[in-house]
Write a structure and sequence with these properties.
The structure holds two protein chains of two kinds.
Chain A (H helix, E strand, L loop, with lengths): L9 H16 L8 H27 L3 E2 L4 E2 L6 H8 L1 H34 L3 H12 L6 H12 L4 H8 L11 H25 L3 H9 L4 H12 L1 H16 L3 H6 L7 H11 L3 H26 L11
Antiparallel strand pairs in A: 1-2
Helix pairs in contact in A: 2-14, 3-14, 4-5, 4-8, 4-11, 8-11, 9-10, 11-14, 13-14
Chain B lengths: L3 E3 L5 H19 L2 H4 L9 E5 L4 H18 L2 E5 L3 H13 L8 E5 H10 L29 E12 L24 E4 L6 H7 L12 H11 L4 E3 L1 H9 L5 E5 H9 L5 E3 L5 E9 L6 H14 L2 H11 L25 H5 L1 E4 L1 H19 L2
Parallel strand pairs in B: 2-3, 2-4, 6-7, 6-8, 10-11
Antiparallel strand pairs in B: 1-11, 4-10, 5-8, 5-9, 5-10
Helix pairs in contact in B: 3-11, 5-13, 6-7, 7-13, 8-9
Classes of the chains: A mainly alpha, B alpha/beta.
Chain lengths: 313, 371
Amino acid sequence: MSPSPFPYPIRWRLLDAAEAVADRLWPRRLARHTGWLLVSPALLLVGLLVIGMIQITDASLHTLDRATFRPAPGLTLDNYRTILAQGVYGTIAWRSLLAAMLVTGLTLALAFPYAYAMVRTRRPWVRKALLIALFLPFFIGQVVRAYGWLIILGNNGIVNDALGLVGVEPLRLLFNYWAVVFGLVQYMLPFAVLMLAPALTAIPEEIETAAGSLGADWLRTLWHVVLPMARPGLVGAGLVVFTLTLTDFAMPAILGGGSQDFIANAIYDQFFRTSDQGLGSALTVVLVAAGSLMVGAIFAVFGAGTLALGARR
Amino acid sequence: MTKITRTTAISRRGILRGSAALGGAALLAAVPGRALWAAEPEKPAELIIRAWGGSWVAALQKGVSDPFTAATGIAIRHDLTEDNEIQPKVWAAVEQGRVPPIHINWDTTVNATKSALRGVTEDLSDLPNLAGTTDLAKPVGLEGFPIVNTYGYVYVLAYRPEAFPDGAPTSWRDLLDPRLKGRIAFYNDGIGLHFPAQVAGGGTLDGIPDAMQPAWDFVTELKAQEPLLGEDPDFTTWFQNGEIDAACTISTNAREARLNGLDIAWTVPAEGAKFDTDGLWIPKGLPENELYWAKQYINYALTPEAQQVWLDGLGLPGVVPGLTPPADLAGGDASYPTTPADFEKLIRVSNAIQVENQSDWFAQFKAIMQG
């Protein structure tokens, strides 16, 4: 390259070089396909998932040959018949679904005021404190947090120690359904707040002021103005919390004391305890199908919320 | 029906035969490996041994891995992936013709039998030190030695003496005492409980596996006691945290809690307790030299000196005659059976029956406990 008489900034030169490289890798004649190029990583990811699901569906159609611990060659629906015939899977599925609904409702109820306070506060230090409190748990994995609750809520834990000070006998706070729900709500709260905050930020504060100036008290403003306008955030956060809870493994395993399994725990048992990959695969297909149907129903009724990224329903 | 017995695996004849072989084994162990094997192939930088964590891996390291490294210069890496979770990885690797992720799997004999039936295990019949082992080392119902059993263990009834002021529980039915509600624990797949439950529920061992309703009736009674269900590390933790007063668990877990300073005892109730074995096996697909050294590791694990230190750590009886029980288990401890009389109290079911029926038993147990 001949030296230019004009002293271009180095930044311009770098951009020119980058453009030249991009032009070699993706010539201009392919420009009309650039959209496909950008979406290709997503297609690759989804494609891998689809291939995996095809393989899992295929595995679900083979029973386990216990003489060789290999899948029997014939195709059969026996694994699905087993799921329908054994009531325990119905119990576990209902428990998972109920927990997903409970955790979603409770998490949104707690996340909304938190996100609202974080967005609307006029004191920067309060916003920072709320953000730090929100992000700190992200640095601690789900398993570690669950073990933290074992320490706090155990028979010899802090809570029972405090109760002992006022003469209350130790209570069994762990290893039941409500302990699992509690742990999940605490785990899901940051996800919900992070999804709600942008939706609340998008609501101009002046609209609330206008509602107040027209005579609405804070409750009516909340009910008729803020909540409807925050619906995309509520739906998006609800979808994320619902699906994560429905497929959760660690909280039921750690806080459930072994008797509060969710579907993911039942799948684990079949893959890793009984070596029955066919039955495990069938349970996986059922979980994916049930989860997809539920999410599809929510999309149909409420729209995709913030997950639609501004697109119309 | 002869498939289920109050175990006689360590018969008098077996002990005598093993003792006679001990002299030969000692000689074999004293001879350097290169004299026993045709040629000594290139040493790998390390061998990867899948192991259970906590006191389990500490005992293996002290008794087998460290001395093996000192003797051969081959580093040993312990992979603490759960035995159930490494199994599909090894199966997939063998299926796809890849080198498996571990050199040796320290596994339950029941799990290992599944791998042997699937055909992913190397034959270990040519290990010289097998000559010095008792009948217990041989997996029952399998051709050759796809697995080498390395010790036995008992699923004892472990308890806090403080919670049983009238003395040790004498029956599994003692766990139905209302004051123990929410204070008892079992394995989350019911392993260890099924067979004594069959007796405690009014059935007989001959009813396994075809007539096990008494076992499920007793498990249903236990369910009303709201038991905790977990895995090995959970029992130690629950005892330490004061969450439970009694548990059906491998004695090693209770002993670990006791060595940590807790007041824990254990017993074999009148109905008996399950006796089973763990073993070592090598997955197919290793390079020849690594296979050779993996076999050498298992061969070393069968020497009296390795067994003595390893199993002192675990508090379990080995497969080599003449081992000395650890001081805290000497004097006929229920968890350390050595004589035929000790084994009379225990229940041993063939691995073939366990492997064939494990999924059904698991499903039954889950159906009751998750209901």
